[in-house]
Amino acid sequence: MTAIFTPQPGYQYVPVRPEHVGAVKELLATLETPAIADLATEDERDALITDDLLADIAKGSKKTTVIISEILDILAEAPEKPVNLAELADRTGRTLSQLQTVWTHLTRYMRARFGHKHWPVRMRSGYRFEPPIGGDEVYVWVTDDVATRWRAVRGK
Known about the structure:
By secondary structure, the protein is mostly helical. It has a domain of 97 residues: Arc Repressor Mutant, subunit A (Orthogonal Bundle). 53% of the residues lie in helices and 6% in strands. The protein has eight helices and three strands. Strands 1-3-2 form a three-stranded antiparallel sheet. The longest helix has 19 residues.
């Protein structure tokens, strides 16, 4: 017999394969600023994104750093412009599944290499923009500063 799940008001039931539950939890944690806020502000978190960190990602040969480099290349073309994951999948030639799970691996990479979990990209659900955009789609972007430094690291 299949269990019937009735979500609480304001929530949506989303079936997730068991092997993806961890990645989904990590992604959801990033959508709520208090859940990721080791530091008080985005500016304080951005200060942890050093040139050395960007260079380390750029020269990386692991699948995670290669995918993140592809994403940063695209986002650095138009800083401060949110791009949804479906568009990134199309532009990188990666599957949406690869882009949805890469963030979990990036968090582990950041903790292991740099002692914190702060990414060089910002991420937000479309609902959290003012005014909201794209419903429940996830959007990522880079700041002007990160884009400028990323392009310098990449020699572009």
